[in-house]
Amino acid sequence: MHEALADVDRRVVGTKQLLRAMDEGRVAHVFVAKDADLLLTKRVVDRCDAMNIPCTEVESMEKLGRACAIDVKAAAAGLLR
């Protein structure tokens, strides 16, 4: 996974914030957790496809949260441009 996810200034965590940042054209790469609710991640993955943003599947929400240096699980996160 990308080490820049731990940098608060270079990432966005959570589906709502991520979708908003994608709409604003600020996201360079997206990460989604395999074990997250499909209703949450499908919107993110579909938006990635539509906007040609690279999307990487991560093993678990727990690992994604740890990579983002947060104390909770994360369904989706993105690296900012």
Helices and strands, in order, run as: EHEHEHE
* Approximate shape: globular
Strand content: 15-25%
Gap between N and C termini: 17 Å
Please tally the helical runs, counting DSSP H or I stretches of 4 or more residues: 3
Indicate the percent of residues in helices: 25-40%
Coarse structural class? alpha+beta
CATH architecture: 2-Layer Sandwich
Tally of DSSP β-strands: 4
Task: Specify Rg, calculated over alpha carbons.
Answer: 11 Å
The CATH topology assignment is 60s Ribosomal Protein L30, Chain: A
Give the overall average pLDDT. 94
Task: Kindly give the count of domains.
Answer: 1
Which stretches of 5+ consecutive residues score pLDDT under 50? Answer: none
Largest beta-sheet characterization? 4 strands, mixed
Mind telling me the CATH superfamily name? Ribosomal protein L30/S12
Q: Going across the major beta sheet, what is the strand order?
A: 1-4-2-3
> Class in CATH?
Alpha Beta
General description of the model:
The protein is α+β, with helices and mostly antiparallel strands. It has a single domain (3-80), classed as Ribosomal protein L30/S12 (60s Ribosomal Protein L30, Chain: A, 2-Layer Sandwich). It is built from three helices and four strands. It has helices at 15-23, 38-51, 61-67; strands spanning 11-13, 27-33, 55-58, 76-80. The protein has a four-stranded mixed β-sheet. α2 links the parallel β2 and β3 (55-58). α1 runs parallel beside α2 (38-51). The protein is globular. It starts with 10 loop residues before the first strand and ends with a strand.
